[in-house]
Amino acid sequence: QVQLVESGGGLVQPGGSLRLSCAASGSIFSTMGWYRQAPGKERELVATITRGGNTNYADSAKGRFTISRDNAKKTVYLQMNSLKPEDTAVYYCNVRRALDGTNYWGQGTHVTVSS
Q1: Rounded distance, CA 115 to CA 66, Å?
Q2: Which pLDDT does position 51 carry in this prediction?
């Protein structure tokens, strides 16, 4: 059974940093990534990373956010720097099971950027 445990959200001032973590278990995963959903908006891609380390970022994340993963720990990270109020959202971890391509979602972690 696939399980995802997210951590690292919270309240931060504009210009600050946060690091999100998502520990997965129960399978081998190909692509892992982060999405976010702001109030009143649709869920959107933030960044993804393949098992081999290839990354993809939303334009809003480029230059400020860095995605990484530890394959041995089955954990994906999102380092967020220079945070802006518009980064306020619930951040969701997403992983794709290598066996059959099934996608799984974490429970979400709140990130609030405010002074």
Answers
A1: 23
A2: 96
